[in-house]
What we know:
By secondary structure, the protein is of the alpha/beta class. It contains 10 helices and 10 strands. The protein has an 8-stranded parallel β-sheet. A hairpin with a 5-residue loop joins strand 1 and strand 2. Helix 1 crosses helix 2 and helix 7 crosses helix 8. One of its GO terms (molecular function) is oxidoreductase activity, acting on the CH-OH group of donors, NAD or NADP as acceptor.
Amino acid sequence: MINNIHSTTTLANGVKMPWFGLGVYKIPEGKEMITTVQKALEFGYRSFDTAALYQNEQGLGKAIHASSIPREDLFITSKVWNTDQGYDSTLKAFHDSLNRLQLDYLDLYLIHWPVPNLYKDTWKALETLYKEKKIKAIGVSNFQIHHLKDIMKDANVIPMVNQVEYHPKLTQNDLRTFCKQENIQLEAWSPLMRGRLQDNPVLIEIAQKHAKTVAQVILRWDLQNEVITIPKTTKVERLRENANIFDFVLTDEEMIAINGLNENLRAGQDPDNFKF
């Protein structure tokens, strides 16, 4: 049951991961980062998603250490950036992230993008770190079905999570079905499509019926589709509002209506055609 902010899903290896968390992309390092995380912790958030690219791992680490919440009650994700991919460089990048966060282990570590000719060696490094118990779970981000199949061909450990762009305009049905079949948990980045869905009449009508915001309806839709969601914001009111999605349920008809908004439209880069 997904009925509160601490509700978890169980990954393929038995690790429990919260269904809901905070993405910290573009939150500036320093005071703003620390304050945002501290507020989120007050509101019950326990899962935080960062990356080497975001350059704010240090602030997240400071906020964690300043809180009284036990480390085992938190779920911390980071990612290896494209320029650090490859076996040895990934091992180094991981330890650099861990040092910035001032943590002994990560709950989840992801390959940020499927860099051609590198992501398989990168995956081997993640498997090594997983075997050494430096990471509780390992996964990927922005991987299409063909990337996943390629990794799975000779992987010793199958990715446990695939974090992808996912929102009502990009429902990724085939990928979602494939991940479900393979017991890979799908996770949504940019679940609100960078604010571009606020004026959608279908979403507005559903939101009014439930006395909720469009953002709350989308985040609830994620959860009812069994997709982990990590909306990002630095606004205190939004932090509170985003987390307030456990007191209503979308009907089957409403879920179908939202699913029907799909246009295979991306707000971010195409994983088969990115230049970074």
